[in-house]
């Protein structure tokens, strides 16, 4: 008994595992490594699925009706009319659910059947992942996924190190180091020793904390502490490590990855939930009507019906002795009879139609060629068919960053060296920088007709060559660059076109040579035409495109030639060899001008995929220009990268992609990092080997925001440092203000372009100073008290008085179209939150790159408190800042007097800018507005009363209504969408924000922010944030991600979108929709989502209308038939009305209807707004449909009844019989339905014509077939009726009475209160291209190229690698194997080209001076260090700065001052 109690106790309190002891571990009944995400099995599918389906109220309602129809005494309709549709719905849904679950089974099988090398009986065997047990020792090889959570025992690397990538867990692609216990390193890869390892592990129970593990290993009578650094988690990938062994601690559902994955939730749309509520209301309505009619029937039978028992005998079950009791029983039976007769108000066909519409809409998404990604041959895929219309109502988007917004690719984009920038392409005609952004669109080239290039897959068996399309924003007419497969490149002009044609146009025609055409690739650079409204200075109003890409040499000499040719940017590039590129002006009378493309082939270590277009930088390096050599030497030496040779090729192992990009850039420019030891670094400079003694590595951490190395070569000791701009600038020596100012301007420019910047600096040290510093540093390192503080002071001492070297600008490549997609989604009224595992600086930088954050924002709040009190204090400060901003925001009529009288009164936009005023001895004055405000005035307050469209500035800016004047109303104020606030929350602070005491305050602030970024968050925190918004804001949410760390967020949101990216398919398998790129989300929501919602709402409104019009005819007839539940129509007509006569037209409406085209849906994002507000289908719209149906049914019944009541035909036939009336009313009902849906349809296709007019014909055909062929009871009724003129006049009058009010109301709305879609449709019909408005269409590239005073610093580095290097633990050889050779010689004297340097310096100074002179007018907000927690902090710092440095106000400060804000004079 005691032996059984001990395991149970251990299981409750802690986890106890013994390595290689299966029997011992089995007694605790730990989960195995089998994964199951499916819901059903073969045996449980039918009962569980039926139980789930009957939880839907409608299905249960129709099941009850079916039971009632099986009772003959109360049913006037056959049960087949309900049974067949109900079985059809249940079957259709079951098939769909079975298909989805089969896909989950296949996914589970794929994961569970992966192979893992497991140690069994002293030998390695290939076992399935599902067979791995807790306590097993498994082997992992390089680039292999970790099968379960394991305790690291031994690795192939010295000191027990291994490197892992945790992209599946937290989205980070930078490598992390793990290290096993030194005592287990000796096990090596000896299988006998590993099999005999019998250590016992006591650890915590399974949990979802990714960064925490507590445990103890007992082995050889010793206890060893275990922490997270010794654990490899399932989902990680082993990198740069040949092999490792570990013992399984958590398996299957107990792993931290699965603990964070969340549970699959049943998802339903808002329309579904509203339908359930409406059905409850309809059921209550039916019960009330049935009860009313039952009472009426009982009264009628008691008063009148009892006297007609000879003609209308009572049923035998009705007591005839006592009349009141008999009448009561009849009334009770009639209650159920009416419940059956009137059930067609909500027929089962409604749900059949809804499922069919959703099913086909899903295929429309799958077949959309505009969301096809040719590079991976991936189409968009709707993995569910029940949520399509929810895509049109999204209010919040929660997005991952890495792999979702970015490509996980870092590129060395630009740099600044000694105050001069490199990396720009200059437009020769205008002198403006050119933005080169990769569009990443691949087309299949057709050799026969190169002008028409399909975007889909090729139809032939032999795939034609792919065409990679690029896009460049240039201030010139559009041009195309064509790159052939042989390496030739040509740039040719192409005619201008509209925006859609720019983005989707086919490449240019190929040359005449058919042989060369086959292998030709085309790279298209499209550029908008130059603006007609240029300012006197030659600048374009608004914002310039980002300078990036290629910078031609010989700029001055070619600029005049280019302009004189008059050919714009018609420049042709031809590359005749591997590295030779020549440029020709496209004009026939221009001569050839050489443009040397940067060719790195002379460097044997260059990387073939490295792209750099600025020839001047390579020329400076090859001419031994001193500053460029110092710059690249610093990049080659100041890092923690490891080098190794694999198959004769030099490869780098970098801790972060930032460092990899910097070291790779130095390598391509001839400064090749070759190898390192714990005390030396070897580089190759222009073919010469240089070896440096590594004295110290001052490691990077998030507080220091910099790293330094101290090196000795010969008699020279130098410190190289790189870090954040604000950190490095504070540690530079004096006397370099001009260089600092120019470099600061470059920093601002790079930051405005969304590039990640690092500032480089150096300091020459004397030998004596370094020795004294080294002694103090060792004393601080050995101190027992305040060691970290003392070391920081020592580091501060030596990292001072540095010389500025330059700036690097790295691009964390966004996926194509991300800024445009985000801008349009925000314009549509959707709030976007980014939830990422990356560090704060990286997340903020990407926020600016993708324009989620902009320089127009009033402030960016950063929540980084470590306790509840700190977080609460920060939230309180931010709330005060928002109050101040709202209080001083300009508005009312005051601003009207400041507006320019020459401006259009229909749309007056004022921009007011102000800053905090400095304190002085003058009397106090009211404080001015503390932040930038952009206010739009519109003279259209009547628009808010419009029905059918949202109130927005879009309508008026786009379609200025000349009929309105200033007297139409007062000015309405709309705050510009680019202003406002953004919120950045750290993961440890988010824990407190999500606590019950702070979540309301957090939500209050977050809901007032334009964008929210949560960084350093765990997968479970992502799900908690989504759940919070769902619960507290009652908002429709969408989560999008590409990795396993996004699964819980995807499952928690109303809509989950998975991106089939580089991190596997876990996100896709858990998602509702799968796309290949983030930019397709824009089309998925603004086109397919809006259309699906629009179609579904229109379908439901019409469906309820036609069914109430049909069903309520029985109610009016009840007044004339003694409430006997007698039907107006033939029972067969009732059965097939929704199935045959009216189903196809309304299905066509729900599948093909659209108000505007897909192009207009993307151009005018605010068309999405009605879905956000649920304006197209709600309780009010439902009541309108019901009232319209009731009115129709009343007219339908009363007019024919009045005509036929005592009617006699021309031939003397009596018309007042029940069957004739029923046939006439049914026919007019079908005709009216046809007329109404014709008016209801906005978009006509051939399918609409066939179904609408075909259904009308089908009615007469089927009625004839049923009555004459089968022999129905109503035979001859309709045939006789249509022979008489009375029928046709009755039908004409009735249809006109029903259609006239609809037409009048429709044209009233169109003329007086047109919606935005109405206006767009009118403009399209008139073929007038509407002008682009900044309030309607936001061009994503318009933000590029602005100066920004914010820091562009972002470095995805982690602390600790420097310590690993200097200790030798990271090396492949042990530290004692290294010996540093002294006497390395002196550094070669570098030749300085004074003429070139002075000319470049003069040009750079002039350019920098021009930019700095304009800097006070172009920088819109002060966000220099991003450390201000509130506006009050900014104010205080601004006053302090003014008090301390007022004397130097005329000098150009290298750091942007607080009062550097834009002032726009209108």
Structural class: alpha+beta
The largest beta-sheet arranges its strands as 14-44-43-42-15-35-41-40-36
What percent of residues are in strands?
A: 15-25%
Radius of gyration: 38 Å
How widely separated are the two ends? 90 Å
Mean pLDDT: 74
Level of helix content?
25-40%
Based on Cα principal axes, name the global outline.
elongated
Uncertain segments of ≥5 residues (pLDDT<50)? 1-11, 438-595, 891-978, 1328-1345, 1374-1466
- Oligomeric state of the chains? single chain
Number of strands: 44
Major sheet details: 9 strands, mixed
Q: Count helical runs.
A: 44
Describe this structure in words.
- With 1466 residues, the protein is α+β, with helices and mostly antiparallel strands.
- It is built from 44 helices and 44 strands.
- A hairpin with a 6-residue loop joins strand 24 and strand 25 (592-593).
- Helix 37 packs parallel to helix 40 (1285-1312).
- Residues 1-11, 438-595, 891-978, 1328-1345 and 1374-1466 have low confidence and may be disordered.
Write the topology of this structure.
Blueprint: H1 2-13, E1 15-18, H2 22-26, H3 45-53, H4 57-69, H5 80-112, E2 115-120, E3 123-128, E4 137-141, E5 149-155, E6 161-165, H6 167-170, E7 175-179, H7 191-195, E8 200-203, E9 215-219, E10 222-226, E11 231-232, E12 237-239, E13 243-250, H8 256-259, H9 270-303, H10 323-341, H11 348-366, E14 381-382, E15 396-399, E16 406-417, E17 420-422, E18 425-426, E19 433-444, E20 466-473, E21 479-483, E22 489-493, H12 499-504, H13 514-518, H14 555-565, E23 571-575, E24 581-585, E25 592-593, H15 615-622, H16 626-637, E26 642-646, E27 649-653, H17 657-668, E28 671-677, E29 680-685, E30 688-698, E31 706-713, E32 716-723, H18 725-729, H19 737-752, E33 756-765, H20 767-781, H21 787-798, E34 803-814, H22 818-827, E35 831-835, H23 840-849, E36 859-863, H24 868-888, E37 907-912, E38 933-938, H25 953-958, E39 972-975, E40 981-986, H26 987-993, H27 999-1006, E41 1011-1015, H28 1019-1033, E42 1037-1041, H29 1047-1052, E43 1055-1059, H30 1066-1069, E44 1073-1075, H31 1080-1118, H32 1131-1141, H33 1143-1152, H34 1158-1163, H35 1169-1172, H36 1179-1204, ...
Parallel strand pairs: 15-35, 15-42, 35-41, 36-40, 40-41, 42-43, 43-44
Antiparallel strand pairs: 1-8, 2-3, 2-4, 4-13, 5-11, 5-13, 6-7, 6-12, 8-9, 9-10, 14-44, 16-17, 16-34, 18-19, 19-20, 21-22, 23-24, 24-25, 26-27, 28-29, 29-30, 30-31, 31-32, 32-33, 33-34, 37-38, 38-39
């Amino acid at each position: 008994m005691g032996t059984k109690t001990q395991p149970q106790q251990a299981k409750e309190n802690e986890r106890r595992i013994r390595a290689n002891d299966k029997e011992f571990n089995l007694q605790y009944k730990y989960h195995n490594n089998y994964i199951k995400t499916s819901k059903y099995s073969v045996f449980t599918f039918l009962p569980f699925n039926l139980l789930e389906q009957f939880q839907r109220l409608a299905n249960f309602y129709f099941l009850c009706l079916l039971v009632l129809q099986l009772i003959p005494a109360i049913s006037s309709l056959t049960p087949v009319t309900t049974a067949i549709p109900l079985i059809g719905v249940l079957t259709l849904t079951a098939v769909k659910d079975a298909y989805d679950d089969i896909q989950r089974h296949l996914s589970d099988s794929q994961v569970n059947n992966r192979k893992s090398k497991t140690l069994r009986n002293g030998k390695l065997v290939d076992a399935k992942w599902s067979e791995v047990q807790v306590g097993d020792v498994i082997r992992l090889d390089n680039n292999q996924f970790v099968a379960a959570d394991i305790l690291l025992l031994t690795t192939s690397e010295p000191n027990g190190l291994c490197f892992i990538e945790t992209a599946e867990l937290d989205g980070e692609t930078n490598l992390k180091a793990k290290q096993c216990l030194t005592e287990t390193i000796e096990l090596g890869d000896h299988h006998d020793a590993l099999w005999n390892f019998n250590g016992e592990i006591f650890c915590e129970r399974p949990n979802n904390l990714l960064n925490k593990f507590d445990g103890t290993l007992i082995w050889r009578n010793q206890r060893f502490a275990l922490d997270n650094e010794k654990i490899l988690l399932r989902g990680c990938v082993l990198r740069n490590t040949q092999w490792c062994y570990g013992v399984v601690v958590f398996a299957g559902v107990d792993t931290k990855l699965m603990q964070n994955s969340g549970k699959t939730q049943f998802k339903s749309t808002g329309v579904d939930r509203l339908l359930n509520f409406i059905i409850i209301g309809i059921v209550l309505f039916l019960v009330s009507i049935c009860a009313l009619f039952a009472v009426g029937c009982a009264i009628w039978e008691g008063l009148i019906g009892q006297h007609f028992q000879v003609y209308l005998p009572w049923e035998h079950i009705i007591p005839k002795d006592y009349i009141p009791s008999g009448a009561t029983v009849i009334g009770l039976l009639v209650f159920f009879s009416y419940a059956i007769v009137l059930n067609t108000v909500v027929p089962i066909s409604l749900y059949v139609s809804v499922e069919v519409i959703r099913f086909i809409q899903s295929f429309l998404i799958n077949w959309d060629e505009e969301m096809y990604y040719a590079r991976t041959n991936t189409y968009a895929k709707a993995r569910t068919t029940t949520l399509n219309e929810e895509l049109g109502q999204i209010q919040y988007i929660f997005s991952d960053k890495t792999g979702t917004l970015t490509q996980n690719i870092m590129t060395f984009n630009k740099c600044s060296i000694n105050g001069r920038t490199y990396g720009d392409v200059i437009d020769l005609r205008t002198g403006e920088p050119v933005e080169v952004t990769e569009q990443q669109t691949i087309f299949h080239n057709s050799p026969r007709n190169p002008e028409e290039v399909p975007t889909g897959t090729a139809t032939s068996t032999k795939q034609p060559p792919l065409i990679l399309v690029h896009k460049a924003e240039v201030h010139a007419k559009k041009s195309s660059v064509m790159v052939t497969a042989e390496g030739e490149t040509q740039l040719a002009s192409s005619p201008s076109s509209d925006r859609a044609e720019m983005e989707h146009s086919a490449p240019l025609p190929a040359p005449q040579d058919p042989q060369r055409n086959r292998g030709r690739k085309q790279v298209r650079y499209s550029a908008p035409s130059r603006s007609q409204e240029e300012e006197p200075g030659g600048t374009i109003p608004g914002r310039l495109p980002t300078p990036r890409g290629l910078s031609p040499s010989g700029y001055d000499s070619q600029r005049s030639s280019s302009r004189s040719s008059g050919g714009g940017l018609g420049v042709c590039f031809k590359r005749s060899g591997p590295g030779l590129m020549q440029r020709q002006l496209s004009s026939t009378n221009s001569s050839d001008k050489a443009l040397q493309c940067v060719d790195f082939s002379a460097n044997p270590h260059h990387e073939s995929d490295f792209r750099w277009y600025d020839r001047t930088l390579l020329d400076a390096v090859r001419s031994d220009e001193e500053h460029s050599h110092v710059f690249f030497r610093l990049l080659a030496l100041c890092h923690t990268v490891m080098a190794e040779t694999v198959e004769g090729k030099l490869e780098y192992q970098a801790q972060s992609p930032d460092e990899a990009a910097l070291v790779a850039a130095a390598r391509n420019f001839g400064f090749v990092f070759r190898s390192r030891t714990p005390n030396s670094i070897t580089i190759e400079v222009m073919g010469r080997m240089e070896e440096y003694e590594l004295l110290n590595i001052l490691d990077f951490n998030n507080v220091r925001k910099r790293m330094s190395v101290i090196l000795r070569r010969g008699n020279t000791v130098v410190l190289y440092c790189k870090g954040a701009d604000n950190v490095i600038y504070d540690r530079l020596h004096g006397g370099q203000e001009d260089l600092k100012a120019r470099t600061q301007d470059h920093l601002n420019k790079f930051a405005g372009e969304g590039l990640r910047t690092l500032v480089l600096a150096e300091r020459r040290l004397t030998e004596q100073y370094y020795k004294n510093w080294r002694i103090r540093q060792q004393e601080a390192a050995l101190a027992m008290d305040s060691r970290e503080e003392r070391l920081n002071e020592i580091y501060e001492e030596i990292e001072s008085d540095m010389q500025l070297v330059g700036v690097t600008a790295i691009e964390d490549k966004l996926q194509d179209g991300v800024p445009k997609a985000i801008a349009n989604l925000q314009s549509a009224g959707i709030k976007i939150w980014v939830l990422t595992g990356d560090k704060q600086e990286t997340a903020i930088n990407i926020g600016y790159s993708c324009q989620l954050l902009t320089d127009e924002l009033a402030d960016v709040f950063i929540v980084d408190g470590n306790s509840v009190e700190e977080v609460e204090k920060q939230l309180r400060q931010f709330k005060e800042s928002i109050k101040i901003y709202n209080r001083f925001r300009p508005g009312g009529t005051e601003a009207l007097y400041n507006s320019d009288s020459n401006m259009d009164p229909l749309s007056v936009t004022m921009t007011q800018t102000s800053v905090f005023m400095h304190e002085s001895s003058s009397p106090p004055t009211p404080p001015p507005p503390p932040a930038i405000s952009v206010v739009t005035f519109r003279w259209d307050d009547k628009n808010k009363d419009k029905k059918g469209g949202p109130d927005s500035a879009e309508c008026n800016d786009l379609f200025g209504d000349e009929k309105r004047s200033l007297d139409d109303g007062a000015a309405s104020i709309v705050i510009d969408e680019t202003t406002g606030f953004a919120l950045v929350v750290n993961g440890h602070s988010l824990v407190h924000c999500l606590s019950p005491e702070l979540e309301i305050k957090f939500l209050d602030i977050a809901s007032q922010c334009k964008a929210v970024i949560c960084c350093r968050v765990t997968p479970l925190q992502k799900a908690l944030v989504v759940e919070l918004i769902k619960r507290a804001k009652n908002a429709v949410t969408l989560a999008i991600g590409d990795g396993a760390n996004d699964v819980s967020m995807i499952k928690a949101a109303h809509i989950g979108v998975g991106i089939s990216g580089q991190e596997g398919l876990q996100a896709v398998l858990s998602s509702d929709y799968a796309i290949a790129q983030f930019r397709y989300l824009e089309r998925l929501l603004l086109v397919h989502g809006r259309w699906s919602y629009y179609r579904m709402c229109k379908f439901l409104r019409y469906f309820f209308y036609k069914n109430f019009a049909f069903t309520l005819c029985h109610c009016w007839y009840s007044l004339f038939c003694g409430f006997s539940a007698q039907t107006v129509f033939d029972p067969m007509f009732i059965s097939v009305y929704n199935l045959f006569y009216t189903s196809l037209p309304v299905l066509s409406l729900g599948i093909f209807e659209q108000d505007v085209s897909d192009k207009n849906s993307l151009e005018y994002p605010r068309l999405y707004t009605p879905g956000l507000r649920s304006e197209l289908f709600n309780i009010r719209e439902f009541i309108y449909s019901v009232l319209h149906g009731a009115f129709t049914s009343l007219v339908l019944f009363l007019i024919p009844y009045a005509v036929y009541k005592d009617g006699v035909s021309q031939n003397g036939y009596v018309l007042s019989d029940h069957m004739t009336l029923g046939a006439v009313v049914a026919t007019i009902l079908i005709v009216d339905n046809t007329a109404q849906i014709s008016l209801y349809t906005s978009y006509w296709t051939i399918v609409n014509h066939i179904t609408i007019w075909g259904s009308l014909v089908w009615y007469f055909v089927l009625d004839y077939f049923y009555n004459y062929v089968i022999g129905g009871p109503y035979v001859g009724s309709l045939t006789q009726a249509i022979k008489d003129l009375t029928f046709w006049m009755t039908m004409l009058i009735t249809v006109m009475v029903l259609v006239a009010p609809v037409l009048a109301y429709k044209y009233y709305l169109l003329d007086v209160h047109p919606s935005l879609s109405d206006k767009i449709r009118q403009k399209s019909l008139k073929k007038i291209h509407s002008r682009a408005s900044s309030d309607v269409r936001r061009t994503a590239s318009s933000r590029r190229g602005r100066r920004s005073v914010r820091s562009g610093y972002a470095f995805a580095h982690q602390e600790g690698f420097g310590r690993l290097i200097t200790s030798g633990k990271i090396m492949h050889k042990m530290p004692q194997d290294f010996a540093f050779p002294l006497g390395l010689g002196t550094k070669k004297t570098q030749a300085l080209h004074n003429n070139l340097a002075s000319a470049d310096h003069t040009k750079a100074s002039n350019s920098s001076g021009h930019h700095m002179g304009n800097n006070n007018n172009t920088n819109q907000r002060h966000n220099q260090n991003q450390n201000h927690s509130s506006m009050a902090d900014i104010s205080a710092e601004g006053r302090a700065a003014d008090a301390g440095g007022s004397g130097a106000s005329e000098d150009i400060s290298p750091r942007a001052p607080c009062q550097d804000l834009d002032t726009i004079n209108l």
